[in-house]
Amino acid sequence: MSPNHHPIFREFNFSVHKQSHKFHIDGLGIKTDKGFFDVTKWHQKELVVSAEPVVNDHYFEWISVLTAVHQASSRFTMIELGAGYAPWLVAAAVALRQLGKEEPLLVAVEAEPKRYEYIFRHFNDNQIKSADNVFFKAAVVPEDFEGDAWFLVGDPTNTYGARLVADQNFGYRKYRHGFQISFAKFVARLRNLQRPEPVRCVKMSSILAIVPQVDLLDMDIQSAELDVVASCIGQLNNKVKYVHIGTHSESIEKSLRKIFKANGWTNVFDYECRKEQSTPYGNICFDDGVQAWLNPRLSN
């Protein structure tokens, strides 16, 4: 392992694995079905065969996951919101297996029906028992959210990054940080056979009620992150050790900083969305931004 990498990577065994037609196998040994995404599009950057972690805008998510795994002193518990096929839950489970730690409690929340099915395939491909974990086919919403939620479905390999929309007519999102969908995007979605459907909603209070404590909350919920965090920060203070958030606008990033700092959380790292930025590991072009926060109430 290169000394230029974050030191947490040296606590795990990364090596080159023989690839197959069906699966991409990363340096940690995680098998990912290539059918989960269109490899000609943005996810192609993940299909790198290397014994070392790839330095891109997911590098810091690896740091968060592996750090939380390494520091776990009892049964590791993790929640992934906007899980897709739950890559980070599986990464945590495989990393724990390397360290010889007990099986974790994993909680996945995903609204798109087909991607929700992918979670169980991804677990099975990596010998993780679904029966021992918890799954919500739902969109996470703020505590004060009422009414119907609509979500774009129908093209699961190309809608990573899909979000709630206000109604079946593809209007703007309900959250105040939303944006008006352009005509071009509207046409593209029609061509991809995407369609809005009503989905079940779940609130953080319901998710946190089923776990005693959370080692890592990984959140990528496409501009809803501020509303969700603001509505449940007191519960996060009491139950969550570490939060990793994908961020989606400058205003959201500024407000999240204010909330976490006002509640005594310690910033681990903070990089803004849609910018190329210098990091200790080289320059990285960030699509989503990333923020990670440590809760000193639970981390000592």
Number of strands: 16
The total of helices stands at 8
Average pLDDT rating: 85
Please tell me how large the radius of gyration is. Answer: 18 Å
Task: Write down the secondary-structure element order.
Answer: EEHEHEHEEEEHEEHEHEHEEEEH
First-residue to last-residue Cα separation:
29 Å
Q: Structural class of the helix and strand makeup?
A: alpha/beta
Question: Helix fraction?
Answer: 25-40%
Assembly type of the shown chains?
A: single chain
As laid out across the biggest beta sheet, the strand order is 5-4-3-11-12-16-13
Description of the structure:
With 300 residues, this protein is of the alpha/beta class. It is built from eight helices and 16 strands. It has helices spanning 59-71, 87-99, 113-125, 183-191, 204-208, 225-239, 250-262, 296-299, and strands at 23-25, 31-33, 77-81, 105-110, 134-137, 139-141, 149-153, 164-165, 195-199, 201-203, 216-219, 242-247, 266-271, 275-279, 282-286, 289-294. Helix 1 crosses helix 2 and helix 6 (225-239) runs parallel beside helix 7. The longest helix is centred in the C-terminal third of the chain and has 15 residues, at 225-239. The two termini are 29 Å apart. The model is unreliable at 39-44 and 168-184 (pLDDT under 50).
